[in-house]
Write a structure and sequence with these properties.
Length: about 150
């Protein structure tokens, strides 16, 4: 068994790295790529410096372990909050906007269609066709006032 580890040389690490990267292409999961990169690094370093097989294995383990945080940092999507600040807050995006009532508000309650959604609205009794402004948002309920 130790003969196998002793025979680990530069070419074995390079071949092992390329095999791991090829397996990543066949079965993608982004895991084998980083192990293959670690093996390639060990192979390239052992080209420059003669290192014992024990140190080579430790280097491979260290590079493989260091690849996890590097991968997480690179794979993390860069969210731009300014691009869509109301992404999951549709009702808050309506605050301050003006709309025309299709149906009247009767006894302080009614509905209003905005785009493809019907919203519950509260406010003073208002006839259909009146322009209203959204002044308050509470979940799916909008409070409106005459614009």
């Amino acid at each position: 068994m130790t003969d196998m580890f002793v025979s680990l040389g530069t070419w074995n690490w390079l071949i092992f790295g390329f095999i791991l990267m090829a397996l990543e292409v066949i079965a993608p999961g982004v895991f084998l790529f980083w192990l293959g990169l670690a093996a390639l690094l060990v192979g390239l370093i052992s080209f420059a410096i003669v290192i014992s097989w024990q140190i080579q294995l430790v280097m491979f383990a260290a590079f493989a372990a260091a690849a996890v945080p590097v991968w997480r940092r690179l794979a993390r999507p860069k969210l731009d909050a300014s691009a869509s600040p109301f992404l999951n807050k549709r009702s808050e995006a309506l605050l301050g906007r003006e709309f025309t009532l299709e149906k009247p508000i009767i006894d302080g309650n009614g509905t209003m269609r905005i785009g493809d959604t019907v919203w519950r609205v509260a406010g003073p009794d208002t006839p259909a066709g009146t322009r209203v402004k959204v002044v308050q948002v509470d979940g799916a309920n909008l409070t409106v006032a005459a614009a």
